[in-house]
Structure formats: structure tokens, C-alpha cells
Amino acid sequence: MCGIIGYVGNKKANSILIDGLLALEYRGYDSAGIATLENNEIKILKDKGRVKNILNLDGYDKLEGTYGIAHTRWATHGKPSKENSHPHFDNSKTFAVVHNGIIENYNELRAFLTENGYTFYSQTDTEVIPNLINYYFTKLNDSSKENNEKILEAVSSATKDLKGSYAIEVISPLIPETIIVARKDSPLVIGTSNGENFVASDIPALLTYTRDFYLLDDNELAVITKDSITFYNNNLDTYNKEIKNIEWDASAAEKNGYEDYMLKEIFEQPNSIRETIGSRLKLNEPCNFDDLDISADYLKNVNKIFIVACGTAMHAGLVGKVLLEKLCKIPTEVDIASEFRYRDPIIDDKTLCIYVSQSGETADTITALKLSKAKGAKTLAISNVIGSSITREADYTIYTHAGPEIAVASTKAYTSQVVLFAVLAIHFAEILGFGNSEITINSDGGTITLDNLKKDILSLPKKLNNILENTDIIKQFADEAFKEKDVFFLGRGIDETVAREGSLKLKEISYIHSEAYASGELKHGPIALIENGINVISILTDPSLAKKSISNIQEVITRGAKTMVVTNQDLEGHEFDYVIEIPEVCPLISPILSVVPLQLLAYYISKNKGLDVDKPRNLAKSVTVE
Ligand code: F6R
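YS: structure for the whole thing
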């Protein structure tokens, strides 16, 4: 979704703004623009299309300004066009604004401003913001006040009128070398270094410049110059804010020789899950979560867990549900965040709500979290981004520590989330006194001890490496499958959750229509779509369900389907077109392995089609609007 960059220092701002926008490209966008000051006048260069197009716009090379604001736009109100691109001016060209978020009452505000003589050139919701600032600034006809004081007041008054979400930057020739920022429900960070300061929608965009960040909270404003950052609350009282040092280094957000971020991130998984496990899980010791102070008394009182998330994070939650129910025996439901918040869920102080979000900035997930807090539940965030909005809202936070994920399609974040659910479920089971119990893992009555489950978790990095060293069959299948229009993914039990993730991965980066079904459900309708040559991909890792799943695959073979099976079971005597063998592991955590061939398949198919793997059309890495 929209990305914001700002710079104020001694260097020429134009190239720093462009580099920042390029670093935010992965968030997804359709237009880009920058604004700096030239001869006391704001100069805006913007257009639809890629960030690099700005370099060819008239006047780019002549921009000498040492501060400015920049934006990548992901269209919501008004199609991608030059007029609708940010930055936006007020009528008098005194204020330039970039904005991430959605102003829900923009129609009312537009009508109000129109009544007061303002005109509009774009279809955006954003254009009301610079004009509202102008309106309040003009109203403050107080000659005893300096411009910087008046403009800050005008920005504050304008933001109080806004309903919805916003992260904004404002510049004006009346306050040279100053950027004013404000946020509510949209991400914004301020990076600080010697004699220069930066603004961005997320931390990785600024890692080449600094590791020291301030994280702006909701309803806060900041006035930024090259030597100072002053923070204000809604009432314009100033206060100090803690600086956060971020450990990720810049190279973690680079491709390091891989053709695409997605491929790099897939291959990073042995290491990223090692980082997730960290010192939390060791053999023959209880799990240790330094960062999670949940008491036995509280947990024993919990009678319901909700896992709430979107997309891939929700798929990780589906595995989390199985783990929590099996290990802790607490009924657990998984909800899509955008539905959860509107369905009046039954929540009270005995409910624990777990929110999963790689970015920690997903608007639906954050809003759902706020709702469950208001209903009295305790909230636990699982996120990858230190200090992200969701972690600041939740009662408890645990981090996946997977390192920056840049490709839009989530891969290593998913495996880290699932690993974290496994370790968390063991931790909860130990707190609840189930540490020595045998855990039933499948319908055949198979069991595992927590110690053996721990061993299996610790064996995952090596097993993942093994999968990543054997990619030839996946490539062969991708060489045929990229020509197809429809694909089905099937699985039973925990394998069905992986089918859903494999299907999502394929559709989002290859634009091939795909559907995921519980294998047994196929014959209740979707089998009508199976015809000669259609690809059906099955995941088969639970021995107790293998026979039934194989029968379901036979049903599609009989109807002409081409089959690929991802399995750790012995399939001797059965004929499938492609079999991807993965190492054996306890079925409760098998998704961490079985998903990898599906990630690779989606990647190779997308490459075969010549698509932009890292930045698929219409998608955004951080979905910061509802
Ligand atoms: C799919 C994907 C999305 C995200 C979803 C939630 O590959 O990346 O489905 O998983 O938008 O994002 P986060 O985890 O940042 O809340």
C-alpha cells in the first residue's frame, strides 16, 4: 500500500527520496511523486507508473532542495493518474502533503471546503488534507504567533477533523527545512542520524541510513528538522520519546545474489526458523519465553482462544489452532480479521486473542485487536516487525525474528509463524501442567511426547535444507504447469491448511486461478471441474489420512487430472505424475516442510511466465487500509 518517505539534512534530497521510494516499492504501488523546495517554492514531480519514471521528469536534475517528501500511491480513491498522485497541494500551493491511509469522511470535508471557496483537481480523499490545513492556517489570524506555531496548530486541527486512517507529511515554504508528520492507524517511523533525519512507512526502507528509530504512535505529531525532532500529542503538549535501535542490517533487506527477494527468502528459511526458535526451545528443558509473561493462573482461566489474521498469516493460524488444541486442550477458533471485527464474536476476560501479522501494520488485524481488547480479552501479537503498530496495541508480543521480508508473497514469515505457534503451544502446555503427557497427533491414535516434538522442531532447519537442495522435480512440473489456467490443491487435516497456502501463493504471483479444497469435499461439487489435463496438487503427510487421501487423488486421476503429490509417506504401488518427497516429521508441524515445494512451485511458474515475482500486480506488502 502507499509508501511515505521524507528527508531533511544537508544533502540533495531528490536522490535520497527516490532511493527511499525504491526501497518501499515492495509494498505495492501504481504512482509515485516527490516534492522539495526550490527558490522558496514547492516543486512537485509526480506521475503514474514506476518510481524510476520520476528521474525522467522535467526538472528532476535541477532539484537542489535539501529536504522533501515523497510517496508511492496504491490507488483507492481515483484511478492511477498524474493528478491523483501525491504529493498534493492546497489551493494556494502553500502546503504539500503526502498521505497513506483512507479519509472516510472526505466527502463531507470536501463539501465543507467547497462551501468555503476551495476547489479540487483530483478524485483523491487526500486532497482535502492540505486544504483543511490551509483553512485552519488562514483562520488563525494571530500575528503574535510564528508561522511554525500556526502551521503546527493548523495541522493538528486538520487531523482532528479526519475520520479514518492517516500517516501524513506536510511541508511549506513558510517553514523552511521542516517536515511535520502525524499519524493515526497508518504506519510511520522516523529515522535519525547525525545532522539528518528521515521519515518512512517502514524500517527496512531506511536501514542504509540509520538503525535508530522513533516509532510514532496514533494521534501523535512530530516536527522534524535536520537537527531536531519534537514530538507532540493531540493537544500539542511536547514530550520525549524513546529511541529504538533496530538490529536488522541493511544487507538483510538486499537480494544478496538471488534473482528475486522471494527466492532469497525461501532459501533463508532454515536460518529464519532457527532464529525463531532461538533460545526459546531446548531439549530436556522447559520452553523459555523471556518476552512473554503469561502466568499459570491466567492461562488456566482461559477457556477459548481466537487466532485472528489475514492471508498467509491466517493460514499459519490454522496450524496454530491444531497445535494449541492438541497440546493445550483449549478450544481455538481461527478468524479472518476483516470478518471477525464485524461478526460480534463472543469474547470475555476468559478469552485469549492471538493476532498474527508479519508486518504488524495490517489495518484489519489491528482493528480486530482493538475490538477484542475493548471486550475484555487479553491480546497476544505475533509479529515480525519490532515496534510495529500491532505490537504496541497488544497486551503481549512475541516476535518471529525471521528478518525483513521484502517480497510481497510471504514465505519465511509463514514458516516462522508456524514454528512459533509450535513452541508457544509447548510452552502453554508446560505451564498448564501437560508437560509429561502424550499428545495424540492423529485419528489413528498416534501419540508423541513433548520431548520428541521438541526434537522434531529442532530437526526442521536440516530437513528444510534437504528440500531446498532437491528442486529439480519441482522445476520440471513448473515447466509444464505454467501454461495452465486452473489448478487444484488438496489435503486432509493439517495438509488442507497447506493446500490453502499453496493455492494462495500460486494465484498471487502467477495469476493462475487456483482453489484449495479438503480432499474429501471435492466430490461434493468441485469435482465437476476436473477434466483432462487439469493439474491437481495434493499434500499428504499424515499417515492416518494417507489411504483416504490417495483414494481422493485416484478419483481425479480417473477423470484425467495430472497429479503432483508432496509427501513423506511411502507411495509404492501408486502412480502419480510427479512426487515431491519431503523428510518425515511429526504431522503437527509438517506444514513447515510441505509448504516449501509449493512456495518454490509458485516461484518457478511465475518466472516461467516472465512475471514480476516480488511485486505482483494489485498487491501490497503492508495492507494498511481496511
Ligand atoms: C500472501 C501475503 C498476504 C499477507 C496478509 C497479511 O503471500 O503476503 O496474504 O499474509 O496480507 O499480512 P501481515 O502478515 O503483514 O498482516
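YS: worth flagging: Residues 3-250 form a domain with the Glutamine Phosphoribosylpyrophosphate, subunit 1, domain 1 fold (CATH 3.60.20.10).
IM: good catch. Also Residues 310-313, 357-359, 362, 365, 409-410, 504, 508, 623 surround fructose -6-phosphate (CB under 6 Å).
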